[in-house]
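Example record

Each entry pairs one chain with its bound ligand, nicotinamide-adenine-dinucleotide.
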Amino acid sequence: MNPFADTVQSLREAFHSGKTRPAEFRAAQLEGLNRFLKENRDSLLAALAQDLRKPPFESEISEISICQSEINLALNSLHSWMKDEHVSKNLATQLDSAFIRKEPYGVVLIIAPWNYPLNLMLVPLVGAIAAGNCVVLKPSEMSSSVEKVIGEVLPRYLDKNCFAVVLGGPQETSALLENRFDYIFFTGNTTVGRIVMAAASQHLTPITLELGGKNPCYVDDNCDLQNVANRVAWFRFFNAGQTCVAPDYVLCSPEMREKLLPALQHAVTQFYGKDPQSSPDLARIISPKHFLRVRGLLGSGRVAFGGQSDEQERYIAPTVLVDVKETDPVMQEEIFGPILPILTVSGVEEAIAFIRKREKPLALYAFSNDSKVVHQMLDQTSSGGFCGNDGFMHLTLTTLPFGGVGNSGMGTYHGKFSFDTFSHQRGCLLRSAGLEKFNSLRYPPYAQRNLGL
Ligand code: NAD
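Structure tokens for the complex follow.
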């Protein structure tokens, strides 16, 4: 017997009872989520600090307030999102009612990673609740303090019959995945994404995969140097580089590289002081295993600045690498740490060719004062999302879909896109039982029908 079969079965029964269908039920759960964030703000900030030494400011803007704005948007939009969408009709259906019903899938599984353990668990949950589903939540075991709060406290704010939290690692997740779900939403790395997709295929369960990859960042010769350096440094070293949309490497000309290096170093000193290890504003690597992996990447190319590390604290200094070859380890995997390699190209065309040779990234960034260059990068490449002249600010808009393409994932969410992701769009036509004379025009014998052909 599968250890989670009973949990999934009882959620399915709750779903079939129709409990999650009314807007009032959904709104009450969303309000519960809001209360959870408000009443447990301090313990959530403490848990994030314990897991990742996440600075409270970063936790506020990238975890708590993002969830709150998604909840508030869903609460304000619930009725309009849920409404049947009436569509235009053809001659034969003029007297009928044709509409798209936004139907909840049923029992949904949400699997979250550790790098933004609250945001990446709750933002999908908001969409799943708004769409009227029952949900199994599987937080990451790596961010164990946040996992504990989610496991022990969150269920008090949600309907127990409709929402369940399952704790554990790969073994528990694998067992969970043997069950039939109506939708699976996974955020994590590409390797595990493949495992999830294979499990989903057993039941033909639709999925969203929010995966990672190497996000390129092109810096044009024509740019405001220090502004670019500040923005690149901030979003590369935010959360100690453990951000799926962080720029993974910079592409620029050799001349720009020489100017960018001191500007990046200046930004790092401004942000974290002369000794970043003592700064309260720099997070730590999640685990000893990840620390060793990231530290191993410091051996690629040459350290231009940074490069220090402290295993005890899982600290890695904000580091920029130069003279990196495409074949070096740092260019073979997603870095997911505070390391930024700079690779040189002759210009935008070569940068585009470099990007196109690789898997489609989750995000792509282009910095230039010349909008033609930014548009050229946008027009001639593909990525999950794109931001010109800044990094990951596109994520802050709930009006933009967020998701990957190709190796960086499939499906989108945020704002209404989350509601749509967790809704089956049921095409409905309600016809009159009468008007048979009109209908009889389509019945055999067809020889009597004149289609005017
Ligand atoms: P992960 O794939 O290791 O873990 C994610 C979840 O999968 C966890 O809950 C974990 O318990 C479970 N899991 C791990 N191994 C498993 C296995 N063998 N079988 C079944 N389940 C398993 O991801 P992570 O290391 O926690 O997160 C980092 C990765 O996630 C990076 O690649 C990053 O780019 C990506 N990510 C993507 C997004 C996005 O929105 N696209 C956001 C954050 C992180």
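The first helix runs from residue 5 to 16.
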